[in-house]
Amino acid sequence: MLNWVFGSKSKKRRKKPGIGNKPSYEKAREIASSGSVNERQKLAAHEDLEPEILYYFATDDAPEVRREVAENRGTPLQADIILSTDTDEEVRCELAMKIGRLVPELNLKESEQLTEMALEVLEVLANDELPRVRAIIAEELKSASNVPKGIIRHLAEDLEDIVSVPILEYSPLLNEADLLEIVARGMKGRALVAVARRRKVAEPVVDAVVAKKDKNATQAVIENNTSVISERTFDKITEEAAGNKEWHNAMVYRDGLPVRTVMRIATFVSAALTERLIEKNSTQKNLVDKLRKTVRQRIENGELGEDEDNGISPAVDRVEADHKQGKLSEEKIESALGEGDNAYVRYALILLADLPKETVGKMLNTGSSKAITALVWKAGLSMAMAVQVQEKIGRLSGSKVLQPTKDGGYPLTKDDLDWYMESFF
Q: What is the tens place of the pLDDT at every residue in 180-227?
């Protein structure tokens, strides 16, 4: 790794496709001084090129050449310093990707020997006027633990969400005190949500996030089962929850709810979600009896319709009844998903896939899009349904969701799907 710092060519490097063999030193010097842009560009892509030639190319008139130098892992740091303030934004972006990937790879010994030049390049890019450059650095450093904390704090407090969000959600270098200070400075929106999604968010940080009264951030805290929520904060959340229907699912599926919170939730969520509360607490007979009593009172008061009264019967009974009547269709399952009746969907998958309850639960809770997709396939349902199950039960989002092929089919082969199924037995 220190070969990168000093530009040594002694380390064997990978060869970039399509650039041909490296010419002799004499030929390389000739190309550098009088070759065409295309020739210089190809030459600059060789990672085992002599450092002095790469350094020379760092000030080449053609941005295409400088981009190759910026991307080249063999470029000496002296040249990277020059490129860090290049006028071409693509050059700086290429450099940001390279530096951002190289620095986290350093081991402890190399980190101690990391020169001021390397830190200078990193700091210049972290302060680049172009958000895209800073965002690249943030994305590459978000999980790093061997970079200067000052750089991480700077990125975490960036005004652009695309820069701050990855650091706020993932960086192990931000401790409780850092997060409390950053939140106190007026954080809001996606940045606040990012803090709420961190693993093992400490109770004081949770309190600070909830105190902001940001609906999306509070929902993220509830959905984050690793966050530490005190009973007092649960009380504050439930006070607002009745009027925030989008929180209902998250609260019901939250693990470790205090009994007082469970009972409070039962006074405003739908019958389907109340059923889920009953199922989650089935070992606590007294609590289950109180929950059923609460549902009956809500029906008598007109808060729940008679049709919803049927919804509190065990999901397994409803699924089996629908199956016997030939009503256990994909449309029925999709409707249950739309109503937040996840228990119905789980039992439907158990029955249709003909798998043990424990196996289905394990597959749905893995966080693996491919495992969930294989389960839905095994149940004989469409890839469109697999997408919904990934999102609504697997709690996956964005690029983590496995998408269908252009014709709406499964993107995995039958052998792959069979393999994923077999891996759970």
A: 999 998 888 999 999 999 999 999 999 999 999 999 999 999 999 899
CA neighbor of 376 nearest in space, from 367, 387, 366, 368: 387
Residue 125 resides in a domain: no
* Integer CA distances (angstroms), 309 to 225, 328, 341, in order: 30, 20, 14
* Structural domains in the chain (count): 2
Which one of 313, 343, 360 terminates a domain?
313
- Compute the 3-state secondary structure of the chain and give helix, strand, coil in percent, each to the nearest 5: 65, 0, 35
Q: Are residues 371 and 301 in the same domain?
A: no
Residue 165 pLDDT: 94
What is the C-alpha separation between 183 and 170, in angstroms, rounded? 16
pTM for the complete prediction? 0.64
In 35-160, where does DSSP find H-type helix?
Answer: 37-44, 51-57, 63-71, 77-83, 89-102, 108-113, 116-126, 131-141, 149-156
Q: Residue 38 CB: number of other CB atoms within 10 A?
A: 11
* Domain final residue pick, 279, 313, 347: 313
Q: Which domain, by its residues, includes 378?
A: 327-422
Q: Give yes or no: residues 337 and 383 share one domain.
A: yes
Residues 334 and 401 in one domain: yes
Q: What DSSP letter does each residue of 163-215 carry, written as one string?
A: HHHHHHHH-TT--HHHHHHHHHTT--HHHHHHHHTSTT--HHHHHHHHHTT-H
